[in-house]
Amino acid sequence: MSRTVPRPEDKLIELVEFLAPIPEAVPVARRHVAEVLRGWGLGALTETAVLLTCELVANAVKHGSSAPAPLTGRARQQIVLTVRHRGGLFIEVWDPGAKGLHPQVRNAAPHDEVGRGLHMVDTLSRAWGHYSPAYGGRTVWCELALPAGTEGERASAR
Ligand SMILES: Nc1ncnc2c1ncn2[C@@H]1O[C@H](COP(=O)(O)OP(=O)(O)O)[C@@H](O)[C@H]1O
Ligand SMILES: [Mg+2]
């Protein structure tokens, strides 16, 4: 796994992490997001951002692993987490999963232990969505509003 953590004095506003598609990717992603938000002065968003990152990475591990052609070699074995600070806080998770599967909010019954992740993403984010890049796989993303007074803050879209 490689990492690039921008320092506050850098003009970098993006963190990109390559994660193995295994359950251990979830705590690794959690640590990286908490660390980078601290560095960006966005500690107030840590709790929510970490929660949503964990759901998106867990989904990439659980639902995104059946890579078809044309993805080959390394691309089939990676999840890519991107965190971007630009007008809002964007969390994107790319997985090499097949085209036919679509992330969708499920109506979980009170005792269901699955089917709550995207409901949480939908409730706690300002916006979320997914798309299939031309090179394959799928990206699921969500956006959190920056705290009032943060540089680059944009008015809420919701
Ligand atoms: N990265 C993904 N790739 C394909 N399908 C996904 C992905 N993330 C979520 N989904 C679909 O959306 C559904 C809802 O996701 P979620 O609410 O996290 O529930 P769960 O992961 O417990 O099934 C999943 O059951 C799955 O069918
Ligand atoms: Mg899930």
From TrEMBL:
<dbReference type="InterPro" id="IPR036890">
    <property type="entry name" value="HATPase_C_sf"/>
</dbReference>
<dbReference type="GO" id="GO:0004674">
    <property type="term" value="F:protein serine/threonine kinase activity"/>
</dbReference>
<feature type="domain" description="Histidine kinase/HSP90-like ATPase">
    <location>
        <begin position="23"/>
        <end position="140"/>
    </location>
</feature>
<dbReference type="InterPro" id="IPR050267">
    <property type="entry name" value="Anti-sigma-factor_SerPK"/>
</dbReference>
<keyword id="KW-0547">Nucleotide-binding</keyword>
<keyword id="KW-0067">ATP-binding</keyword>
<keyword id="KW-0723">Serine/threonine-protein kinase</keyword>
<dbReference type="InterPro" id="IPR003594">
    <property type="entry name" value="HATPase_dom"/>
</dbReference>
<protein>
    <submittedName>
        <fullName>ATP-binding protein</fullName>
    </submittedName>
</protein>
<dbReference type="Pfam" id="PF13581">
    <property type="entry name" value="HATPase_c_2"/>
</dbReference>
<dbReference type="GO" id="GO:0005524">
    <property type="term" value="F:ATP binding"/>
</dbReference>
<keyword id="KW-0808">Transferase</keyword>
<keyword id="KW-0418">Kinase</keyword>
